[in-house]
Design a protein that fits this description.
The structure is a single chain. The chain has 249 residues and is an alpha/beta fold. The protein has one domain: Rossmann fold (3-Layer(aba) Sandwich). The protein contains seven helices and eleven strands. Strands 2, 3, 4, 6, 7, 8, 9, 10 and 11 form a nine-stranded mixed beta sheet that branches. A two-stranded antiparallel ribbon has the order 1-5. Strand 9 and strand 10 form a beta hairpin. 44% of the residues are buried. Its EC number is 2.1.1.222, 2.1.1.64. It catalyses: a 3-(all-trans-polyprenyl)benzene-1,2-diol + S-adenosyl-L-methionine = a 2-methoxy-6-(all-trans-polyprenyl)phenol + S-adenosyl-L-homocysteine + H(+); a 3-demethylubiquinol + S-adenosyl-L-methionine = a ubiquinol + S-adenosyl-L-homocysteine + H(+). Keywords: Methyltransferase, S-adenosyl-L-methionine, Transferase, Ubiquinone biosynthesis. Pathway: Cofactor biosynthesis; ubiquinone biosynthesis. O-methyltransferase that catalyzes the 2 O-methylation steps in the ubiquinone biosynthetic pathway.
């Protein structure tokens, strides 16, 4: 199924210029596993394990297939410098990545070119780009950074094909996430200072409400937990971070 540039009215603005500037300033280090995005490099395999299982279930794919997204389109909204876009492209998808920071898009294009991956990168407000009819829409660790969460969720829903699959992830607003993701991680240098505003984190119940208002139905969320023995891993514990599928109702 091909993505289309639809003729649709622009949705409400969701980009926070301060957030875009913060992440844009980190663009040069995004692909350095020991740099400022080191935590994302550790998180990515955990998210990809969930995504791969969700793809196989939703599209009835063989879990052994090397390219389960062959012939399908995928959108990563809030793509940064392409840490998720490139694995999706290797799974066979025709990938579009959108980000608020032009610096991130420049870094993403340069890295994809070096890897020989034909990814379509776009900078700007998702709701103004007219992107629609994607088989897979992902937005991971993004909703907590937008100014209008309801508008952003509606933009994601508008980009999804009627029978498509959406995957969302977000840090949960709990005492534990405040301690580990904000106070500890930022003070210890695991995450750049100013990356997280704990008050903007979204609980599973709040995400359910946002999704419902956008005409989406969420699946059962899985937690992304941390322990000294396992590191970051999928879990039934949602207190730190969670990842979930969504479909159009």
């Amino acid at each position: 199924m091909d993505n289309a540039t639809a003729s649709m009215p622009a949705s409400g603005a969701t980009i926070d210029p301060k957030e875009a500037a913060h992440f844009g300033a980190l663009a040069a280090e995004w692909w350095d596993p020991a740099g400022s995005s080191a935590m994302l490099h550790k998180l990515n395999p955990v998210r990809l394990a969930f995504i791969r299982e969700a793809i196989d279930l939703h599209f009835s794919q063989d879990s052994r297939a090397l390219k389960p997204l062959a012939g399908k389109t995928a959108l990563d909204a809030g793509c940064g410098a392409g840490l998720l876009c490139e694995p999706l492209a290797r799974m066979g998808a025709a990938v579009t990545g959108v980000d608020a920071a032009p610096e991130n898009i420049a870094a993403a294009r340069a890295h994809a070119d070096a890897m020989g991956l034909p990814i379509n990168y776009r900078a700007g407000e998702l709701g103004t780009l007219g992107l629609a009819n994607f088989d897979l829409v992902c937005s991971l660790e993004v909703v907590e950074h937008v100014t209008d969460k309801a508008a952003f969720m509606s933009q994601l829903a508008a980009a999804l094909a009627p029978d498509g699959l959406m995957i969302l992830s977000c840090p949960n607003r709990t005492a534990r996430s405040r301690l580990l993701l904000v106070e500890a991680a930022e003070r210890l240098g695991h995450v750049p200072r100013g990356t997280h505003d704990w008050t903007q984190f979204v609980t599973p119940a709040e995400l359910q409400d946002l999704a419902s208002r956008a005409g989406l139905e969420l699946g059962t969320p899985r937690g992304i937990a941390w322990s000294p023995l396992k590191g970051l891993h999928l879990s039934d514990d949602l207190s730190l971070n969670f990842i979930v599928t969504a479909r159009k109702r």
